[in-house]
Fold this sequence. Notes:
The structure holds 2 protein chains of 2 kinds.
Chain A: H1 8-19, E1 23-27, E2 30-34, H2 37-49, E3 54-62, E4 73-80, E5 87-94, E6 100-102, H3 111-122, E7 125-127, H4 157-160
Parallel strand pairs in A: 2-5, 6-7
Antiparallel strand pairs in A: 1-2, 3-4, 4-5
Chain B: E1 24-28, E2 40-46, E3 49-56, H1 64-68, H2 77-81, H3 88-103, H4 109-137, H5 141-162, E4 171-172, E5 175-176, H6 182-206, H7 210-216, H8 224-229, H9 234-238, H10 246-249, H11 270-293, H12 313-318, H13 320-328, E6 342-349, E7 352-359, E8 368-372, H14 374-386, H15 393-401, H16 405-409
Antiparallel strand pairs in B: 1-2, 2-3, 4-5, 6-7, 7-8
Helix pairs in contact in B: 3-4, 4-5, 4-11, 4-15, 5-6, 6-11, 11-15, 14-15
Amino acid sequence: xxxxxxxxxxxxxxxxxxxxxxxxxxxxxxxxxxxxxxxxxxxxxxxxxxxxxxxxxxxxxxxxxxxxxxxxxxxxxxxxxxxxxxxxxxxxxxxxxxxxxxxxxxxxxxxxxxxxxxxxxxxxxxxxxxxxxxxxxxxxxxxxxxxxxxxxxxxxxxxxxxxxxxxxx
Amino acid sequence: xxxxxxxxxxxxxxxxxxxxxxxxxxxxxxxxxxxxxxxxxxxxxxxxxxxxxxxxxxxxxxxxxxxxxxxxxxxxxxxxxxxxxxxxxxxxxxxxxxxxxxxxxxxxxxxxxxxxxxxxxxxxxxxxxxxxxxxxxxxxxxxxxxxxxxxxxxxxxxxxxxxxxxxxxxxxxxxxxxxxxxxxxxxxxxxxxxxxxxxxxxxxxxxxxxxxxxxxxxxxxxxxxxxxxxxxxxxxxxxxxxxxxxxxxxxxxxxxxxxxxxxxxxxxxxxxxxxxxxxxxxxxxxxxxxxxxxxxxxxxxxxxxxxxxxxxxxxxxxxxxxxxxxxxxxxxxxxxxxxxxxxxxxxxxxxxxxxxxxxxxxxxxxxxxxxxxxxxxxxxxxxxxxxxxxxxxxxxxxxxxxxxxxxxxx
Lengths: 169, 410
């Protein structure tokens, strides 16, 4: 490893040189990069090689009611480096009718359950995920409750949950 | 339910074992004294040996993140209490740390020190319970009682501080709800005096206890590469030789001013995680002592036009400004200005990196309040750690990961 690690800006410049110009912004000292969905996996693979070895979180924001939003879903990948303690936020925007992207489980195993949770609560499909099942909601559940068009008090699914008997559990 | 017959998709090379008839399935949880919380593990056993495990969660899912989109920043702190309920103060600090990062609020020095002290006390109480529970599950009941007695003392400190023992809801945006009184400081001082003695007793009871060492050493080994790749943080990662500690790496609150060491071990087994937690309690004590002796004077709340901070009762009843701001805090669109921005901020919670990703849309309510719970990533580690060990090791590994189901499911 070099004695002085490259700054996040250098990493971004190199990333831009590889995949083309990217929309970046800085807020509260956090650097965010918007990567197009088609280039995302390659960008992640490259960033992992550059030392971003820790996938802190994968989450999503539903921009249905957000002012001046261009896309419906915004995935958030929080990367960090355990060696240099740099952080980088990658945004990948997706739209209906088929919000899906490539899974990053081959790169970071931490993504396994995090992506399952995003699938469960937002209905975003991760292609190539080894085990894309619901994580926190019951298997019989059909909606994706963290979407903005899902009401806070639900749609009455609880009344239709199957009743388990001693013989059929 | 189809869980028992579900495909053990994570098993990989062991997939061939699926057709073996002699394997039997054991359902561990969701109601079992040794899970300590409501979670479920479906174990595939070959005699006593665990061939594979499939963790299942969601039994306590109550939509905390959805609630975060409907409760204001100050109201939501009551929900964070109920996430990791064995160290609620740390969750309070994490939530408002994230909110203040989004709003760009600088805390007063006194508030930063107070939050540091309570976060470290929360760390001690968490480690007491998690180490105590490991002891309990491996047969050391006395050790557990020693640990739990000291948790009572910390509960008493919190009760004197804010009136609540368990669900504290102590922090506010830009401040805390109550200032330290001389009685609180007195109680923390006496805790600082008495606790090292108990800690020594605890170490003498268990650290070199043959039974305990045999049950935990070499059990549930997590390598450094695996720990990083699987997103482990906190004592679990530090037990595997990852030196990451946000208190040192990204100093927040008052940690930049204080002298402490990051505790690490390299073995990566249950015993290493136990040692890291024991040592972290000593470092936390040092931190509390330093912060308490250097506690700055001054306000506990920031005063941005008296808006963000809650006015004191004295101000509410005796000045028109205080009354106005008191009412403004409960009126829509009269509180603080929230940018159309998104930000992530994390603290080193007792269990690992506890962060909140908040999207603001101009309202006092978060547009999206994502909690990054360390427990989820640690519970996902479980099959990896238990494979090849015996059934009795399940509780040792589970205890050393310190899974809190309320934080797991949110």
